[in-house]
Protein: Phosphoinositide phospholipase C
Amino acid sequence: WKKQRHFRLLEDAMTIWYKSRWPGKGHSTFSISDVEAVREGHQSEVLQSTAEEFPAELCFTLVFHGRQGNLDLVAKTPEEAQTMDEKERQDQWVRDWFLKADKNKDGKMNFKEVQTLLKMMNVEMNEDHALHLFTSKELQSDIFLISFCPFYKMLTQRDEVRKVFKDYSGDGENLLLEELETFLSVEQHEGGQSYQLAKMLIDRYEPSESGKHDGFQSYLCSQEGSIFKPKHLDLHQDMSQPLSHYFISSSHNTYLLEDQILGQSSLEAYIKALKRGCRCVEVDCWDGSDGEPIVYHGHTWTSRILFRDVISTLKEYAFKASDFPVILSIENHCGVEQQTVMAQHLSKILGDTLLTTLLDGQVPQQLPSPQELKGKILLKAKKLNNPEDCLDGTQTDEVSDEEAEDAESPISLLINFTFYLPILQKSKLSKELSDLVVYCKSVHFRDFEHARSNAKCYEISSFSEKKAKALAKDEGTDFVRYNTRQLSRIYPNGLSGAISSNYNPQEMWNVGCQIVALNFQTAGLEMDLNDGLFRQNGCCGYVLKPDFMRDSNTQFSPDKPEERQGYKPLRLSIQVISGQQLPKVNQKEGSIVDPLVRVQIFGVPGDQRVKETPYINNNGFNPVWNKTLHFVIHTPELALVRFEVEDHDRASRNDFIGQFTLPFTCIQAGYRHIHLLSKDGIAIPPASLFVNISISALT
Ligand SMILES: *[C@@H]1O[C@H](CO)[C@@H](O)[C@H](O)[C@H]1NC(C)=O
Ligand SMILES: *[C@@H]1O[C@H](CO)[C@@H](O)[C@H](O)[C@H]1NC(C)=O
Ligand SMILES: *[C@@H]1O[C@H](CO)[C@@H](O)[C@H](O)[C@H]1NC(C)=O
Structure:
């Protein structure tokens, strides 16, 4: 039999209600969750039997879970049938998620729940933006599923992703396991593991049979689809080599939260740096008035904190972000008495955590490894003797002031501090403090020649940024060799330090310097590079240098990368396809960003390049650039790639929108998303770039 029926979706967005046309027969309902599938055309016995009467484009069948019989329906027009069908299918994927999130099954969700749901679905959304869309739909606090689906689609429609999907989907609607596998091996370069990966991705990103395309997009936006090789995010490097073979995440003037002249010294600054994976922190110690040494930036108006409190903070936070050793670099301006107080605090507060003896009691030929030093704090300071000497000498000794040039000069350029400048005197060293120094004995650097024949592996020198640059330029290979065996610490030039500005750490990494100390409190390009380098290897604060920087006879010079053994330049092509939900930078009403993408390569001097896309007018939500940028990279092992999005400004400097920086060696080729970070290195979740990357040998 055939009857005319009117079906209506109720406001709970889950119940289909239908009424018989016959008077007095009442109505019936069924739930959408009972529907297993929607089949188009003549796909049931009943519809096949009436095939002549009703053309296929009008027909569809609802298949129910369990025992309930099918419901065969015929629409009035092909359009009507198609609308229903298309919508049902596309919405199903969202509905499945909705059901997961709607715990009490009332078909309602408040804004907070929707946010949670979007997170579950791997849809990250800017809060302001979402709230704006919600409130503009006259839904106030609750949204119903019926408005959720279009909303979701509006938010996430991605034509450029759909295009890629269609290239690999046989029918343009579904991506079969084999098709996904082909995509993974051809475009994503996933090699031998593409079958396993395809299975895993389908399990993870497709909770239901429907909405394959949404699952595909979810994968591309996920960690597996990100530009960063997932396995490089984990701790994966050999941690058993000498300390000198690693780049070490290091902070300068750690105690400062802001400006170096007027800024605040704060324990919070230590906590922040340590939580960020920093493995070398600094204290500037001065005599306090009541016998307690204090920490602040000498001769300036920064506030003061107690040395004792810094050490307690260090004890508590040193190993929260990483197990690997922390180097405490002490800049000592105290008299002998308070130095002894410092030594007492260090021993008492840090206890076993402080390394005070040689690991194996032998004269060290090379520095111990991060692995061997796990959970230890090492003191870097001046020392009266050598760690292997058994000294039963005097309580104090004089250290010649040859290190004066290494010590950072207090800032006296902007303000007249003549009155406070210290009387130059021979510094005296407390034996107690000296005895706590083992593997990081501060010494003055003379020259590479002298170091080659006299230096011990546990001796460490500090270089100003200016001095290090000069050495890198004139004696690059010597510097690299020196750094295979000994640690070197670089600090910002005094003058620029006045405003806590940073220098480019890449130039120092290029010659193998390990402790390249940056002002962590100062956001910007330099910290982006630091965060970018140390994001790999489990954010543990240690990154193994490339092999040609660990060989003491290396021929490597950053200025002539082609002269080293194993030189293999690569070609990097980046097709910048599109951007997603870029944040608004200019809060002026009505202003919309005109975004452009700048790609910068940092590395050996010959690799430094900047290229950019044109800007797109008035579109921060889904701009499409589709612009390919080409680079040649001579020393991929040292290169960092920075993606920066800016708001084009005709009249003044462009505004920063977001960035992401990563080591070249951590890049995954293929179609990838880049999840952008704010100026402060914080994730700004909805904002991303979609790129297509290819890497090939230079022929
Ligand atoms: C700096 O201050 C000292 C002491 O107050 C004063 O004698 C000196 O003249 C000042 N120098 C300048 C350049 O103002
Ligand atoms: C992007 O560029 C490629 C090749 O340059 C072209 O084939 C493709 O159609 C472009 N896509 C868009 C959306 O403009
Ligand atoms: C992405 O890059 C690959 C390899 O270079 C290329 O074959 C493909 O056409 C690119 N995709 C688009 C949309 O241009």
